[in-house]
Design goal:
mainly alpha, 6% strand, 3 domains, two-stranded antiparallel sheet, 240 residues, single chain
Length: 240
């Protein structure tokens, strides 16, 4: 701070800063990486060059997101990320349970197995060989894991519902946008006023097509960049 006093008009920016303090600007790592790539010296990465490129981005871009204290937005993002982990783990356990059950009863196990359906199916199983006994024990363990994950997902959604209600958002009044999707939107966006226009928001979510025109040939292509989590939310809303 003493060194910076020689510049009365100064601005501080930190790459990848979230929840630090109010006087900083947040420089996305993708922007500093682009600045480093365009600089002389190729894509060499050191602390000194990183600091220079972050400063260049902060100097030329005055619409950087200010760093604010962590609030309900951060809480919602943590809950949605935890829910994604739980759902992915539940899917893996469910698939494994179905694979084990297929080899136990005559004719295999039907698709669309849930914890209750798996428990009902296992009641009628009478193992004959040692291999079948091993499969039955594995199925019991997997069923216990599945029930535990079901409870965790349910508890997570209850916490998410309370957190969304605390924000007093009106997102859940929109068609096909429930608690989980609203939590993802708020968790990733925060204050929507940081987007100057709806076009900026469309670009951020990767839902706006990219201009690939050349000469008299006017064409666009699908944007595979942007925030893919928000892009998935918009896709789900559109499909529903």
């Amino acid at each position: 701070m003493r060194w910076c006093e020689q510049w009365p008009d100064r601005r501080f920016a930190v790459e990848g800063a979230c929840g630090l303090c109010w006087s900083l600007a947040h420089v996305p790592s993708t922007l500093s990486a682009r600045a480093r790539l365009l600089a002389t010296g190729g894509d060499r990465k050191t602390d000194a060059t990183d600091a220079l490129h972050v400063a260049q981005v902060a100097f030329f871009r005055h619409v950087l997101r200010p760093v604010v204290q962590e609030d309900q937005t951060t809480l919602l993002r943590l809950l949605t990320e935890r829910r994604d982990d739980l759902v992915h783990e539940r899917t893996r356990v469910l698939n494994r349970l179905h694979a084990v059950l297929r080899a136990l009863p005559p004719g295999g196990a039907p698709t669309g197995v849930s914890a209750d359906k798996a428990a009902a199916l296992m009641k009628g199983i009478r193992p004959v060989t040692a291999t079948d006994n091993c499969r039955r024990d594995m199925a019991r363990d997997l069923l216990a894991d599945l029930r535990k994950l079901d409870r965790r997902v349910k508890n997570n959604e209850a916490e998410m519902r309370e957190a969304v209600a605390a924000t007093r958002t009106t997102l859940t009044t929109l068609p096909c946008l429930g608690t989980v999707l609203a939590a993802e939107v708020i968790g990733h966006i925060g204050d929507v006023s940081r987007f100057p226009t709806d076009h900026h928001f469309a670009s951020y979510t990767g839902s706006a097509p990219l201009d690939a025109s050349s000469g008299n040939n006017v064409r666009h292509r699908i944007n595979t960049g942007g925030n893919r989590a928000l892009n998935s939310v918009l896709h789900t809303i559109a499909v529903c």
